[in-house]
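[job 0412] stage=complex_fold ligand=manganese (III) ion status=START
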Amino acid sequence: MLVAGAAPAPPPPLGPFRLEPLPYPTTSFVPAIDAITMQIHHDRLHQAYVSNLNVAVKDHSNVAAMPLQDILARLPEMPEAIRTTLRNSGGGHANHTMFWQVMGPHGGKPGGTLAAAIDRDLGGLQKFQEDFEAAGRRVFAAGWVFVTVTRDGKLAIEARPNQDTPLMDGRRVLLGNDLWEHAYYLTYQNRRAEYLKAWWSTVNWAKVGDRYAAAEAGTLTI
Ligand code: MN3
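[job 0412] stage=complex_fold status=DONE, emitting structure tokens
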């Protein structure tokens, strides 16, 4: 007799893309982000992007062999039958992978060359945070607000709809915040501005600094 809960989980669909486990507990950001939101967001929503992406590339081995940032930068060349899935689920996988990476407990403050770049390009930390929140508030419906970074280390704020990302222009993302309601609705309902303000407490600046160094070294991917 089968005991409920004892059956092994079904294997994930075969494919090149994988959902990494969250690198911290789902309770890490309470009260800024509640644990149920973290769990559903990572375990169900991000997993769905990964699964859909794997299904899409199943019969396209040339696409399956490409790094995700290259797929996204070359969407117009991708097979038309899977292009929309690559855009939405590929963008979703890249965006959420970055999102979990730039968050973390013990956030600290920007340091070193990153702090200097924020001063130089974004008018200092306070003005940057105000402008980033304002750009986030202006996004109509679902989307993301990002900080892009060039190979020269230059920073800029940029918003995108849906699961689009500056990776689709062949550029690189330093950090970004998810403005879909699933990212904040349980705690904030429609109060996106409050979520944007509270989200700063979840950012781990040491990890953002690592991404900044990787961007300058040309090794930052998604
Ligand atoms: Mn999301």
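The longest helix spans residues 35-57.
[job 0412] exit 0
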